[in-house]
C-alpha cells in the first residue's frame, strides 16, 4: 500500500476507510470489507495485511459465516492488544480518565470521581498524569490524547467560552493547556479538545444508539446543566465558530428558575438533576453526584406522590424543549443521555406524547426517542477525537 504522489495518497485513504469500517463495526469479514471498499480481493487482502502489520486489526484464519454466494470469509476485528488513546473528561465533580482502544473499547480507567482543585491547568495536568500512570501499568502504545470539557469550545482558538458549571474563567485556553501537557508528557499527536455533549454524540453515532442515523440530535444532562449536539451524515455540526447547539438555554418555563446565563426557565435549569431533586422536595447530598441522586429517585419502584409529580413536570418541560428542536432541525432520531435517558425510561409514553403534542407535525411526523447506550459516552467521544488522525491516515500516523 505504499507509494508516491496521488497513488500513495489514495492508498492511505483506502487504509483509513477500511480501518474506520472495522472500528465502527460496519464490517466483520474480509469479503464484507472488499464489497464496502469496492476494490479487488487482492487489494483488500493488501489493505488487511497492512492494518494487521500496524497492530490495528487481527484476522481470524478460521472462516466466518458466508455472506452471500461463495466461500466463507475470514473474520476481521480490531486488535484487542493494539494501541490505545488517552481520553479524559472534566466535569463538575472532578475528572475521569481512560485508555480506549479501537472499537470504542475502554481498556482501563481511573476511579469514577477524582476531585482536584478547579483551576483548568491543574485539572488538565492531573488528568494527563493519571493517564500516564494507566499507560505505564498497561504497557500499551499510545496513539494520541483527547479531552472532553463541560463548555462550548470556540474554534479555532480552543477556548472554553461558557464553563458555567466549573470554576473556570470564561475563555480558558483549554486546548493550549492540553497541548502543553501532552507535549510535556511526551505523548504523540495534537491536542484534541471539544465539548462533552458533542463528544457523547460522536461516540453514540459510531458505537451506540445513534448508529445508522443520518441526522442525529442528542440532548443530555449529566452532573449539572443540559447540552445538545447534532450529527449530520456522520459529522458533528459545530456552527461557524464551534459554538452551535447550546440547547440548554432554550426557554421552556418563562416563570421558572433563574439560569446561570441570565435568563429564566431555561432547559439547563428546568430539566437537569438539581431541577428534579428540587421539584421532588429533596435536598441534594453534597457527598453524592446530583445525577446519581436524581436517577435513584427515578428507580424507586414505589415513588411517593412528590417524586411522581416532579417527574411528570420535568418530563413535560423536556418534551417542550425537544419539540422546539425537532421543529427546527428535523432529525431522524433523538438520543437522550444522562438523566434525560432515565426520564425516557421512566415515562416511555408521556415524553414522546409531549413532544408530539408540541411539535409542528404532531404524531404524523414523530421522531424516535432513544436512550443513550454508552456508559462512558464523553470519554469514548474524547477518544474518537484522538483516534481521528489514525482513522484518516493509519500509515502516516503509526507507520513503521
Question: What would a concise description of this structure say?
Answer:
The chain has about 400 residues and is α/β, with parallel strands linked by helices. The chain has helices at about 5-25, 30-35, 40-55, 120-140, 175-185, 195-205, 265-270, 275-280, 290-300, 305-330, 340-345, 350-360, 375-390, 395-400; strands spanning about 55-65, 75-80, 85-90, 95-100, 105-110, 140-150, 155, 160, 190-195, 215-220, 225-230, 235, 335-340, 370. It has 3 domains: about 5-80, Winged helix-like DNA-binding domain superfamily/Winged helix DNA-binding domain (Arc Repressor Mutant, subunit A); about 85-200 and about 375-390, Nucleotidyltransferase, domain 5 (2-Layer Sandwich), CATH 3.30.420.40; about 210-370, ATPase, nucleotide binding domain (Nucleotidyltransferase, domain 5), CATH 3.30.420.
Amino acid at each position: 500500500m505504499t507509494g508516491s504522489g496521488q497513488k500513495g495518497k489514495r492508498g492511505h485513504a483506502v487504509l483509513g476507510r477500511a480501518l474506520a469500517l472495522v472500528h465502527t463495526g460496519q464490517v466483520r469479514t474480509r469479503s464484507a470489507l472488499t464489497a464496502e471498499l469496492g476494490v479487488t480481493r487482492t487489494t483488500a487482502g493488501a489493505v488487511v495485511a497492512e492494518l494487521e502489520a500496524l497492530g490495528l486489526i487481527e484476522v481470524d484464519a478460521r472462516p466466518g459465516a458466508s455472506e452471500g454466494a461463495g466461500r466463507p470469509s475470514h473474520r476481521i476485528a480490531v486488535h484487542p492488544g493494539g494501541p490505545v488513546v488517552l481520553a479524559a473528561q472534566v466535569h463538575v465533580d472532578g475528572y475521569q480518565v481512560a485508555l480506549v482502544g479501537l472499537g470504542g473499547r475502554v481498556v482501563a480507567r481511573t476511579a469514577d470521581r477524582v476531585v482536584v482543585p478547579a483551576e483548568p491547568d491543574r485539572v488538565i495536568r492531573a488528568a494527563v498524569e493519571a493517564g500516564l500512570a494507566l499507560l505505564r501499568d498497561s504497557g500499551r502504545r499510545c496513539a494520541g490524547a483527547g479531552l472532553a470539557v463541560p463548555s462550548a469550545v470556540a474554534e479555532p482558538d480552543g477556548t472554553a467560552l461558557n464553563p458555567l458549571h466549573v470554576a473556570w474563567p470564561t475563555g480558558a485556553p483549554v486546548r493550549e493547556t492540553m497541548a502543553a501537557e501532552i507535549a510535556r508528557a511526551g505523548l504523540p499527536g495534537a491536542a484534541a479538545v471539544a465539548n462533552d455533549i458533542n463528544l457523547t454524540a460522536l461516540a453514540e453515532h459510531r458505537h451506540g444508539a445513534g448508529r445508522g442515523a443520518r441526522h442525529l440530535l442528542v440532548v443530555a444532562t449529566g452532573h449539572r446543566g443540559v447540552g445538545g449536539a447534532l450529527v449530520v451524515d456522520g459529522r458533528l455540526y459545530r456552527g461557524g465558530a464551534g459554538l452551535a447547539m447550546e440547547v440548554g438555554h432554550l426557554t421552556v418555563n418563562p416563570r421558572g428558575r433563574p439560569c446561570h446565563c441570565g435568563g429564566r426557565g431555561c432547559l439547563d435549569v428546568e430539566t437537569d438533576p438539581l431541577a428534579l431533586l428540587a421539584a421532588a422536595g429533596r435536598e441534594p447530598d453534597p457527598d453524592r453526584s446530583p445525577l446519581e441522586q436524581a436517577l435513584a429517585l427515578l428507580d424507586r419502584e414505589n415513588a411517593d406522590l412528590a417524586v411522581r409529580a416532579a417527574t411528570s413536570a420535568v418530563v413535560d418541560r423536556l418534551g417542550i424543549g425537544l419539540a422546539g428542536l425537532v421543529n427546527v432541525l428535523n432529525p431522524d432520531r433523538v438520543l437522550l443521555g444522562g438523566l434525560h435517558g432515565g426520564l425516557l425510561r421512566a415515562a416511555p409514553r408521556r415524553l414522546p406524547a409531549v413532544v408530539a403534542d408540541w411539535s409542528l407535525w404532531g404524531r404524523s411526523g414523530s421522531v424516535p426517542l432513544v436512550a443513550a447506550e454508552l456508559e462512558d459516552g464523553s470519554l469514548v467521544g474524547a477518544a474518537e477525537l484522538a483516534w481521528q488522525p489514525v482513522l484518516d491516515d493509519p500509515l502516516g500516523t503509526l507507520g513503521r
